[in-house]
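Notes from the pairing session

We agreed to fold both candidates in a single pass and log them together. This is the raw record for the first candidate, unedited. Please don't reformat it; downstream parsing expects exactly this layout.

Candidate A
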Amino acid sequence: MLYQFGPGHPFNPIRTKMTVDLLQCMGSLDDSYILTPRFAREEEILLGHSKDYVDFVKSIDDAGTLDGHAIDEELLLNYGIGTEDTPIFKNMHRAGLMAAGGTLEAIDLVLQGKAKHALSLMGGLHHALSGKGSGFCIYNDIVIGIKHILKNYHKKVLYIDTDAHHGDGVQWAFYDEPGVCTLSLHETGKYLFPGTGAVHERGSGAGYAFTVNIPLEPFTEDDSFIESYRESFEKVAEYFKPDIIITQNGADAHYQDPLTHLMLTMKSYHFIPKLAHELAHKYCQGKWVALGGGGYNIFQVVPRAWALIWLEMIHYQGRLDTLPRTWIEKWQKYWDGPIPEKWSDPQHPYEAIPRKEEISYKNEMNLKNALYSISNELVHKLDQRF
């Protein structure tokens, strides 16, 4: 709960607490499975960030606020801190260390053979760049974690990002790195922050064809998303043959999310971890680390979506119909709107999308174009070239 931008900010760590509480209320998560995350060490943070940026965030942490006018506002903007998206808060540096430490702990558990899968919901901060915070993200725990893998384990990493916003920070960090393949499905950057993630962004140099982007049209629904996700994930995994899979599981593509324009329901959030689980066992002996990410309808959407990741990891066999009454009653008093009573959304939760066929066709074309770089024909040409 250190990672607090303050009242009214959409990024609220209570999402994680509600998710853990939901799983415990249904008896699917006992304390023996929960590890206290460590703080990442500074040398680990420097795997993903420039020293001047880290020193600057530390100086904010020491000052606590801007009230003393000790911090240059122009520098704040250059470092992407103190903005409307990523405002200053007390203990900012320590909160970033904790989020990164959780991801590093999860990766070590899996790669040291202590667990097949691990889940770190405070991770998934995919926008932060080497020298700049961005989009609610101070330190990019994903970049730090993957560089930790490359440095200490020498493994090939397949990174899958299903947040509604493009995972720009991770993409640019590994754009020319052939040991890391990034696949991102997101709402097109034509209308949504950060504006990147076009099909033609495919990597560069030795990293060419190891960056795959599937931009989705606004108002994309379950069927089109699931088909794009299934086909791209299966083909990229077959092409890359990873040693470990890392997933960023933002839950902001849901139709009730207030910040985006996609129209997924819980049907997609059932399928997302299911396929990741299946392909992790098919290609890398089950090695799968799942992280959190975006998701701004914290009472109706995020706890259900994230709990499903854990339930998939433990092969939950029970019936998923109604949510525990004790959990609903506990959290209802903190929110004026209705907390859903069921795991699934209603059968017809919103009015029919009038351009459904056109949207699905555009997504299909984007999928086809995105996968061209890993098609047999192009891979053969690349093999000859290199």
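Candidate B (folded immediately after A)
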Amino acid sequence: MSEERVNELLKELHEGVVEYDEERVVEASNAVLAEGHNVYNAVMNGLASGMEEVGELYDQQEYFVPELLMCADALYAGLDILKPHIDPADVGSSGAKGQVVLGSIQGDVHDIGKNIIKMMFEVAGFTVYDLGRDVPLENFVEEQLKTDSEIVAMSAMMTTTMMGMKKVVEMIKEKNPNVQIMLGGAPVTGDIADLFGADGYAESAGNAVQEAVKMVASLRKLQSE
């Protein structure tokens, strides 16, 4: 497939999500499969890229909740078609796999980014315990203890809710210092993750999985020594 055609399909996926045009997304997703384009690239640089722009439009108050939900519908219409065909090797999942407790922090009802990350973890072969959105802080601790998961991943879309992450990190590390904790979301930076005592920072869905793979591999190496 020519680079021009690849870029054309990526643009169709991106704009289809931004313009909440499900039919356009479905047509482009089917073309990706029929024409043999890399599915992971289509998801990350087409669908997810479109959703990132939607998030910016929402922050700028050009889009509101109804538009956000319609864009999410278009995104999921594409994911339903493409997700089963993602090659785990493209996600960087070779070798280490593990268990992840995942959720949006208390007070935060935004879960689109969290759901994309969940999908990427599942594709990579991780077992995901999805607590959903607006998750009470202590629930992250209880679920980690119950499932003995190696990783806890939290997301926040607002600076006010982000502060709850620090408390969860402290509670989990007190119970089990070996658990690896990853933070993500619009207001979160690498410096904030360090300040909160987290072990990793996810800049994007793809980055989250790659960081998680490294975390699990490091943990297993420590356990074998």
